[in-house]
Amino acid sequence: DSGVTQTPKHLITATGQRVTLRCSPRSGDLSVYWYQQSLDQGLQFLIQYYNGEERAKGNILERFSAQQFPDLHSELNLSSLELGDSALYFCASSVDGLSSYNEQFFGPGTRLTVL
Amino acid sequence: GESVGLHLPTLSVQEGDNSIINCAYSNSASDYFIWYKQESGKGPQFIIDIRSNMDKRQGQRVTVLLNKTVKHLSLQIAATQPGDSAVYFCAVRWRGNDYKLSFGAGTTVTVRA
User: Fold this and answer.
1) How far is CA B77 from CA A56, B63, B81, B92, in A?
2) Are A35 and A47 in contact (CB under 8 A)?
């Protein structure tokens, strides 16, 4: 158990819908990262927040957005869902930001299926 | 940019033998390298990391070797056990990419009893 929690574990929805994925980082970690893992793309970095502020962006679509709240939990919002958005979405956390040599601890993931 | 590739998508190894998983990266400015293990239904789990100022780092039953000359990274697992069956990813970061991690596609290791 990494200490990072994600809810829900599974999510099935239809095209065009909007969903929210939730992540609670390890106690004491200030950074939260979101990744997408699909069969053909591997693990892709989406976005990072550090202490409530967006710190770095990766291959995140405009239909997707995220935020980190004062209690440091984070939410990833996916809207206008398409079939190709079906994937595993992982949240990770670390003590510090990307530029530090801190390992990222990954949550168990949310499996999103878009029908 | 940075591209990260693994030499073999799958590896079958006899229990008790040593395993070697390889990874190649493209950017010579990469400064930090991490190996992750992902078991079925779980998130990636940190195994070991190495900074660019090192050539070798050892952990418990694992060794990471870094060859910056040819931009190659390897993970060696000693005395492979059934619990080592998983997908292994290398992750690479470089300052020019805002320190974001780029992941390889993964090598699936299967341990034969």
Assistant:
1) 33, 7, 9, 20
2) no
- Contact check, Cβ <8 Å, A4/B49: no
Which residues 39-98 of B are in CB contact (within 8 Å) with A? 41-46, 49, 51, 89, 91, 93, 95, 98
Q: Rg of chain A over CA atoms, in angstroms?
A: 13
Pairwise CB contact (< 8 Å): A109 & B51: no
Q: What is the pLDDT of residue B100?
A: 82
> What does the pLDDT look like over A60-72, one tens digit per residue?
999 999 999 999 9
- Point out which residues pair with A91 in neighbouring strands: A34
For the stretch A13-52, pLDDT in tens is 999 999 999 999 999 999 999 999 997 677 999 999 999 9
Q: Give the dihedral of Cα atoms A46, A52, A56, A62; nearest 10 deg.
A: 50
